[in-house]
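Q: How would the structure tokens look for this protein?
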Amino acid sequence: MAPIVIVGLGAFSPSGEAWRQLWQGPLPEMLWTTAALLVLVAGGSILLGTALAWLTTAYEFPGRRAFTWALMLPLAMPAYILGFVFLAIFGFTGPVQSSLRSVFGPEAWFPDLTSVGGVAVVMSLSLYPYVYILARSALREQTPATYEAARMLGDSRRAALVRVVLPMARPSLAAGAALVMMETLTDFATVQYFNVQTVSVGVYQVWRGMFDRETAVELAALVLFIALVVIGVERLLRGPARFHQRGAPRDIERVELRGWKRVFALAACWAVLGSAILVPVGQLLYWLFTSPAVVTDLSRSLEFLSNSLGLAVAAAAGAVLFALLAAGGARFSGRSFTRRAAHLVTVGYAVPGPVVAIGVLVMIGWFTGAGGSNPAGLVLISLTGLVYAYIVRFMALAYGSVDSSLEKITPSTVDAAHTLGANPSRVMRQVYLPMAGAGAAAGAVLVAIDVLKELPIVLLVRPFGFTTASVWVWELASESRWAAAALPALLIVLTATIPIAFYLRRERRTRGSAVALETRLTAAGRT
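A: Here is the predicted structure in token form.
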């Protein structure tokens, strides 16, 4: 809680002159573009995620089973990579506009990409899997009795979807929309490619450009306030209604698509998958094999990737360790207050990354001020603070996975261990840890993937001279050195895809499907 509390307290000591200059300068435009971007990205992600979830759940067409899991792969494609590839292909000097001008003349019209609409398209393609996973999980959890009753009463499949299925899935859709909006609020790399100024961009510019810590903390407090508004909107979207169901959940009976409907379903899945992952990866591979700069940057890219992997391993291990302590401690205590307090460790996932980063930077300033100016000590404190920031930010992923595994342990099992004389530490070692092993592994994978892709926190907190693969990609793309950024970008995507593919294969082999991963992602998202 400490970094978030520090930023929150910054709102109670505002600097009048700094805020006056901000209000007279770029802040009103930043607030407007931030609000517009949140609405557009959330709407686009809900539309894509819900439509694809319903398509792969309620209908049968060739390749449906493969598309079900392939549509999750854009999780491995960060928006700041998809953004610069998008600009390289569809920008003014890209192949698409060049071809249009050669056919229709130099005055050929093409929409302006460097706008809120352009960045909203890119971020929707990158973030829709959050809604897709939660929507699909909600559809699988529903018993089809209410849907079948609506059909028997004369509703078409579309009417039953709108009147019955979607209202019952509203809590999951609202949680997915909140996740998407939080990720949108966190981003300040992709938006800068498109010349879009958001409040998060302002935090970075004030801290790195003006070195004004007080104003940066106050701007971060404004970002925190926007995040709280997003959470409030999410609660309103859920509404006061509560939906209960009887009977075991089972899949809705699928209808086989034929003719043009089958073609449309295939085209929709391929279009989204191609735009979000296949075409960008293809463009990166093209640059990889045609650019001489790639060979000279290989050793540097591998060095920066090793830095990213080191941070990912450290953060994943720390997040899982503290998740085990929090979830296990809540169960050992047995008190409702302790259980509610344990959930506070997940609060970092409900606030944007720049808020966590600014709070950690203030704490680093305290430690460095007390510890002197030893260069090695400063680097160690900064790296420790960076790992700490990652643990705070992504603890919810580990806690949700561990907690869902511990829920399977029956009270009688623990009571039997206590009856046989086992103390709490032995119960933890021999009962809780073996049962939580799968959840801990899933949580570690999810945390590691997010750390590998993460950019805002590492840009703000990293010590001078320390570069990760994500920072290297952003620096090269910001200078329009797109071909040089291809290798580190591919390494990030590949490294983030391998754990996803491995874990999906493992779950499908052990249980016949990847329901467990879907459930843990759902639990983390709802947290």
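The radius of gyration is 24 Å.

The mean pLDDT is 79.

Upvote if useful.
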